[in-house]
Amino acid sequence: MRWLPIAPAARRTGTDVASNSRPGDRRKPGPPRLSPTRLNCYLECPRQYYFGYVRRLPRRARSYFSFGTSLHAALQDFHEQGGAETQPVETLLENLQTSWVDAGYQTPQEAAVRFDLGQELLTAYYQAAEERQAETLFVEKMLSLPLEGFVLSGRVDRVDRRPDGLLEVIDYKSGGYLPSVDELENDTAIGIYQLLVARKMEETPIIGAIYNLRANQSVSIVRDESQLKQVESRVQSHFQVLSRDTTFTPLPGPHCRYCDYASYCPAAER
Ligand code: SF4
Predict the structure, then answer these.
(1) Which ligand 1 atom lies nearest to the CA of residue 50?
(2) How far apart are the C-alpha atoms of 44 and 116, rounded to whole Å?
(3) What ligand 1 atom has the least distance to the C-alpha of 252?
């Protein structure tokens, strides 16, 4: 085991990390950027954030990330080409073939089982999409919003205009867990996606939905202008803490089991 302490001589804050600059990059660094992924990583465990975004230690390929990436790419192409209105289910399944990422699977058999599951999930997704009345406005779009001292950014999976006229930002999940509405209220990522889309479209209220592809079900939350302002101020506070952090105190817990840096970390819960 090789433990990696925070070296005082090399201390950097979370702001350094969040900046666009990379070692050796001669371009003028842009303002610090903060995405839901980075923020969630920091909130789960600041030391994990340090290893990943300050030290930039490589992550291991994980089959569940590959599975999610494959499904996202298949759905992106499907919606960009007009969705269920213009394409048969076979096209969506062919997309999965084209977008399939093998990295992280232990054996070809494990990958094959997952591929079959992916086809099953997309078939169910297609049937639901056929009945859905909403108009898809954009998919897999990177959005950003300048805030005080940093730029908030994130890639939204899909944004629909619903038949009732409301905007809905949809975040796909390929894992098995479907959150409750209460949990969604505290979900920083979905709040950020709602904020980014609302500011881009200059429109509120806005619906944020987690679409669980395993369950083929979604759970959603509406946020109006004042609730979006609360999200904004929460993110702003998190950034203040992150940007001044130089110690990145470990927060061990069950998530240590999935942490790529556990072998460097004396605090890892085993
Ligand atoms: S092993 Fe646990 S405590 Fe250590 S960095 Fe990873 S998540 Fe944090």
Answers:
(1) 5
(2) 32
(3) 3
Q: How far is the CA of 250 from the centre of ligand 1 (A)?
A: 6
Radius of gyration (C-alpha) of the chain in whole angstroms? 20
Can you tell me which residue has the tokens 């591929």? 115
Cα distances from 48 to residues 33, 44, 244, 267, in angstroms, run: 18, 8, 16, 11
Contacts of residue 89, Cβ cutoff 8 Å, sequence gap at least 6: 122, 123, 126, 127
At residue 5, the pLDDT reads 66
User: Where are the alpha helices (H) located in 62-155, listed in sequence order?
Assistant: 63-80, 89-99, 108-131
Whose C-alpha lies nearest to ligand 1, atom 5?
A: 48
Mind listing the pLDDT tens digit for each residue in 142-175? 999 999 999 999 999 999 999 999 999 999 999 8
Give pLDDT tens digits for 69-118: 999 999 999 999 999 999 999 999 999 999 999 999 999 999 999 999 99
Amino acid at 10: A
A 10 A CB-CB count for 270 gives 6
CA of 47, closest atom in ligand 1: 5
Count of beta carbons in the 10 Å neighbourhood of residue 59: 12
CA of 270 to the centre of ligand 1 (A): 10
Pocket lined around ligand 1, Cβ cut-off 6 Å: 45, 47-48, 250-252, 255-256, 259, 261-262, 265, 267-268
Of 29, 21, 34, 28, residue with least CA distance to 143? 34
State residue 9's pLDDT score: 44
Question: How far is residue 163's CA from residue 119's CA, in Å, rounded to a whole number?
Answer: 28
Task: Please say if the pLDDT value at position 56 is more than 60.
Answer: yes
Where do the domains of the chain lie, and which CATH numbers do they carry? 63-131 (no CATH), 135-235 (3.90.320.10)
Task: Write down how long the chain is.
Answer: 270
